[in-house]
Inverse folding.
C-alpha cells in the first residue's frame, strides 16, 4: 500500500495488485467495512470498476483497473486528501493482524 498524487493533484491510496475483477466486490466491502464507508453508486465495465463511496463524510472513488491490475482509493477533495494517510494507517494495522 502506498499514497500517490494523481494528475488531479488529489491523493490516491494504492491498495492491492492481487485482486481481480471478480474479487473486487468482496474486497471493496472489506475495505469499506474497515474504514466505515458506504457505496453511493457503482459503475462496472469489462476492464474497470469504479464505485463512488462515502467515508467519514467525504466522497472517494474506490476503483479496480484491469491493466495494470490495481485497486485504489482515490480522493475527490482536499478534505479527502487529509483523510487518506489515516486510512493507510488503519489498513496497514489490519493487514498485520
Amino acid at each position: 500500500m502506498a499514497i500517490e498524487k494523481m494528475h488531479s493533484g488529489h491523493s490516491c491510496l494504492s491498495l492491492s495488485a492481487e485482486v481481480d475483477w471478480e474479487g473486487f466486490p468482496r474486497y471493496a466491502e472489506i475495505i469499506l467495512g474497515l474504514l466505515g464507508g458506504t457505496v453511493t453508486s457503482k459503475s462496472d465495465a469489462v476492464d474497470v470498476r469504479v464505485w463512488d463511496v462515502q467515508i467519514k463524510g467525504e466522497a472517494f472513488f474506490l476503483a479496480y483497473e484491469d491493466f495494470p491490475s490495481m485497486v485504489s482509493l482515490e480522493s475527490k477533495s482536499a478534505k479527502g486528501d487529509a483523510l487518506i494517510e489515516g486510512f493507510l494507517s488503519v489498513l496497514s494495522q489490519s493487514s498485520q493482524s
In short: The first strand starts at residue 2 and ends at 5.
